[in-house]
Amino acid sequence: MSDHLLMKQRADECAAAIRRHGEVRVVSHIDADGLTAAAIMCHALDRLGIEHSVRFVKQLDKEILDEVADANIPTVFTDLGSGMLSDMPRGMDVVIADHHQIDQDGAGNITHHLNPHLFGIDGSTELSGAGCAYLLAQSLSCPGIQSGDLADLAIVGAVGDLQARKFGKLVGCNREILKQGRDRGVLNYKKDISFFGKQTREVFRLLLYSSDPYLPGLTGNEAASIEFLRKVGIDAGGERWRRWIDLTKEEQQKVVSSLVQHCISRRMSSYHLHRLVTEGYTLCREKEGTEMRDASEYSTLLNATARYGFADVGLAVCLGDREGKLAEAHDLLKDHRKNLVEGLKLVRERGITKLAYIQYFDAGSSIRDTIVGIVAGMSLSNSKNRDTPILAFAESDAGLKVSTRGTQSLIRKGLNLADAIGACAARVGGTGGGHNIAAGATIPRGSKDEFLELMDAMVGEQITTGK
Ligand code: C5P
Ligand code: C5P
Ligand code: ZN
Predict the structure, then answer these.
(1) Run of H or E residues at 56
(2) Is residue 112 lining ligand 1, measured as CB closer than 6 Å?
(3) Is the Cβ atom of 437 under 6 angstroms away from ligand 1?
C-alpha cells in the first residue's frame, strides 16, 4: 500500500476512535497552525454533534499532560503531541494529529497517532498540523462537510508554519489539499510578488516593510520606496495610495520587473532574488481587501492573537466571526507588528554572538518567549551570515526559552534542529523538539552556557558528518 493510503487508513482509525465518544477535548498549539487545526476539528465535531472544548498551550509538558490525565476526557491533540509520546496519559482515549518530529522512545505508547513522519512524508514541508486535522476531519466524514470545504483553513496553517518556503510554493500533501480547495472553489493560487500585505497595505508599504527579502535601498526608507514606485509610474496622485490588489496586472508586472532589475544592480544574492516572486494563496470566500483573503496575512493575524494569550479571539475568527472578535484581532495585530519591529531592532543593537557552528542572541525579557522564534527566523533570513543556525533565548515563566531556526542548505548538510535541541535540552534537564529547520525548548535558568556548548558540538557533528 502507498504511504498516502496508509496514512488515510490511520486517519480513518483515529476518526473511528473519536466517533465513539459524545464528548471530547481538543488540545492545540498557540500559533496559526494550531489555531486552524483546532478550528478544523471544531467544525467537524460540531457537524457530528460531538460536544467539545478547546484548550491552547505553548507546548506540552508533563504538568499539562497530568491535567489531561486527571480530567480523563477523551482528548484530541492537534499540532502537538508527537514529541511527548512517552508521557502521554495511559488508560484513556488519546488521538494525536501532529506533524512534529516523533519521540521514538514512546512510539509504542499510542495507537491513534496520525503524523506524516510515520509514513515517510516530511512534516516540515509537506503537511502541517492543520493539514493533519483536515485529513482527520475528512475521515470523520461529517454531514455537510464536502471534500475541500475546510481546505482554506488547512492552507492558512501550512503557510503560517512557512511550509511553502522551501520551494516557493506548497508541495506534497499540502498541494493535494490546495487542489481540493481549488476544485471546491474555496482557494486559488498564483505566482505573485512575495511581499506581505498585498490585500491590506498601501503599495509603498510593501517595499518599505519588506524583510524577506530585504530590499537594498528601499526597505526601511519611505521616501526611496515612494520614489521607486513613482519612477515606475505608480503614485498616490494626491489621493489615497492603492493596495497591491488595486493595481492593474500591467502595473504589477512593471513593479516586479523593475524590482528585479533594482535588486540585481544592488548585487542581491540569487537566493534572495528567487524569493521576490513566490506562489500566493487566496481564500475565495473571504472579502477582498481583508487579511483573511490572503493565507499569509491571515496566518499573521492569527499569530497576533494566540501567541499573546488570546487564542479564543483567533479561534472565533477561524470559526467565522467577522465582527467583534475580528476587531479585537486587528488591535492585537497592531501590537504584534510593533513587537516584531522592536524585536528585530533589539537584535541589531545587541548583536549576534558567533560560535563555531551556531550563532545566538539573548533577548532576556525584552522579547516574548512566544514570538522570539519568529524574530530569530526573520533575523536569520535577513542576515548575510546564513552558514550557521541561529539560537535565541528569552525568559519564560517555565524557565529559559530557546528557539532555533536553520536554512534549507544547512538541512542538506545534515542539520536537524529538533534532534539537536531535544538531546541537548534533555542533557541539561529541559525538554525540546520541533522540526529539522525550526525547533524550540525550555531549559533550566543557569544552564545556558552548558547548553550552548552542547548545541555547538552537536550541530557541528551533524553538519560535518552529514547526520
Ligand atoms: O509548532 P509549529 O510546527 O507550528 O511551528 C513551526 C515553526 O517552524 C514556525 O514557527 C515556522 O515559522 C518555522 N519554520 C521556519 N522555516 C521553515 C519552516 C518552518 O522558520 N522553512
Ligand atoms: O517556539 P518556537 O517558534 O521556536 O518553536 C519552533 C518549533 O519547535 C515549533 O514547531 C514548536 O512546536 C517546537 N517546540 C517544541 N518543544 C518546545 C518548544 C518548541 O516542540 N519545548
Ligand atoms: Zn505546526
Answers:
(1) strand 51-57
(2) no
(3) yes
Stretch 89-108: mean pLDDT:
94
**What percentage of the chain exceeds 90 in pLDDT?**
92
**205: CA distance to ligand 1 center in Å?**
25
Single pTM value for the model: 0.97
Is the CB of 98 inside a 6 Å radius of any atom of ligand 1?
Answer: no
Closest CA to 242 of 254, 252, 231: 252
Q: Position of cell 513613482?
A: 230
> Which ligand 1 atom sits nearest the alpha carbon of residue 125?
18
CATH 3.30.450.20 fits 343-465, yes or no: no
Lowest mean pLDDT segment, chosen from 281-295, 330-344, 378-392: 378-392
> Residue 378 C-alpha to ligand 1 middle, in angstroms?
11
Q: Domain ranges in the chain? A: 3-184, 198-293, 343-465
Whether the CB of 438 sits within 6 Å of ligand 1: yes
Q: Which ligand is nearest to the CA of 369?
A: 2
Residue 329, pLDDT > 70, answer yes
CB 45, CB 25: distance < 8 Å: no
Those residues with Cβ within 8 angstroms of residue 81's Cβ, 6 or more apart along the chain or in another chain: 27, 60, 88, 94, 96, 97, 98, 100, 113
- What is the overall mean pLDDT for the chain? 96
Q: From the CA of 183, how far away is ligand 3's center (Å)? A: 25
Q: Give me the CATH code for the 3-184 domain, please.
A: 3.90.1640.30
